[in-house]
Amino acid sequence: MEKITDKIAALSNDANYFSLEFFPPKTQIGFSNLQTRLERMSSALRPLFVTVTWGAGGCTSSRSLELAEICQRQLGLTTCLHLTCTNMKRKVVDEALEEAKVLGVRNILALRGDPPREEEYRLEDEAENGKDEDDSNEDFTWAIDLVRYIRRVHGDYFCIGVAGYPEGHADQSHPTDQDPLHDLPYLIDKTKAGADFIMTQLFYDVEAYSKYEKMLREHESGIFAQIPIIPGLMPLQSYEILMRTTKLAHAKVPLELLHKLQGVKGDDEAVKQVGVEAIHDVVESIREVKAKGPRGFHFYTLNLEKAVSSLLDRCNLIPPDPDDNNVSAIDDVSILFNGNAAHHRALSSASSSAAAQLTTNSHRSSSPARFIPPNSNPLSREATWDDFPNGRFGDARSPAFNPPLTYSPTSLTISPAQALSLWSTPTTPEEITHLFISHLAGQTPKQLPWSESATLSPETALITSELTQLTRLKGYWTIASQPAVDGLPSIHSIHGWGPPGGFVFQKAFVEFFVPASTFHTTLRPHLDRLRKEGEISYYAGNAAGEFQSSESSDAVHAVTWGSFAGKEIATATMVEEVSFRAWVEEAFGIWGEWGRCVGEAARRGRVEKARQSRGFLRRIGKDVWLVNVIGHGYREGGRLWEVLIEA
């Protein structure tokens, strides 16, 4: 039941320490497997403390507390629980803090989260009818409100951390207004309100961090003279994850690092190696600056262990095991990498650049996971989880399955004002169809609600005609897809991934929303016939939790795989029931987020239009089904599109 600041104070002034961040996985089996990973990492790496991210909503927030309990009680790790106050009722905050006390957690990282969309853009009549005396936005609008509340209610029981932004905080409404000086008054207020330490946003620009720390330490108020300032660093897992994360965090990637990565971005293993050296250099640069006490580093792990373990070893940050003088930190990391005999064999790393090969015509990007081909020798799936962290197309059993790349309680990556500008206020299915067709044509909107990027995949051009036909003729709103590929070189400019000298393969697949009436009367009977003929497999779900599939619950479909010299078959993307079910919940939540965003129109005087559009989007979100169809004939490039258009 130690406070972080007490543990730091107990170290010598010239000591180094580190902490690790974990998030609660979205699947139960991933959560269970994370516990095993945490046991291994805590024993081998021995962090000073760990942090657990907070999930918005009852189910996810409960998992955060469950994960905090595992860390604090079962593993004996000093644990810091993230708490985002925006969109949180006071009752939920009170319950979380009381539960933290029960668990022995005495450390809280107080964060704001995203702007309060539900309240900020609630229509006038909804605000009057839906008022709640415990509504979060009466008490918690900014992180400082949470800091003050914790201090007022709980005194000094909790050690409180707050966020710092070395490159400036970029609000979604004003993403270009980044300046640490602009943030400074808010950080001063949070510190005066009772913050005990500062933990920074991830960064790769060490010069920006050095200037930031110097600005704080030398501030005329003296308020930052002694407070622990802990820089946040994220080990590189893949080029795709780096690009997505830094875009969402508005963090700069130095040109020198970007240049090194450009040459190897198709090979994850090479990317990780470049990343280890790059972040090692950042750590060493920060170490060179005399600190006000022990020097700490915080690592955003994304629940992955290999890259962060290698980095900690490279930086000589792992403390010796106090219980065993015969085992060195290097020995511990070797054990962590190799595991026991059952887990010793691992697939070699391919590349998450195959993630970029998933056509994203509004489509979620992904990065490679891995797959055990039916005819290969059985291997431990755990051995390769870190090799292919592939978002929602990864292995749902992995502790790192579909990690959140921001602390946002919402799935949208843009502000309500930006959403209104891109998608307006649709009130008919025809208007939504027009948005999708325009997007496929490369016109406005460049991004749709289910996109993580405003840039279409290079593969999109190869199947734009087919996707447009599905949208225009069938009324299918496609959100993820890829064409079939039969043995192209791994260095192919569009489809290539993995190390040179290999060959890559893809099954065509497409994922789309379709009206319930169409799904039940036309599409599903057609798909069932095709499944009997062995041509396709499909998964389908809706907002109500109903689920239909042509497959058994344990079926796993490789949709992108590769063969590389001297290595076993590796897969970049897979589709299976457990991961699809997890995605269905998120995908339908985005319909609700879109509906809330149209409230921005009311702020501009279009109240009735906003009300109509919100009601329409809610009805659509409740009616449509999300369907994923996989074509098994990867040597018959156009077959999937033909059979779907025939439906």
- Structure class: alpha/beta
Gyration radius, in Å: 25 Å
Strand count, sense and barrel status of the largest sheet are: 8 strands, parallel, barrel
Mean pLDDT: 83
The number of helices is 23
Number of strands: 17
How would you portray this structure in words?
The protein is an alpha/beta fold. It is 41% helix and 15% strand. It contains 23 helices and 17 strands. Strand 5 (159-164), helix 9 (180-193) and strand 6 form a beta-alpha-beta unit. The longest helix is centred in the C-terminal third of the chain and has 21 residues, at 577-597. It is globular. The model is unreliable at 115-137, 337-362 and 364-384 (pLDDT under 50).
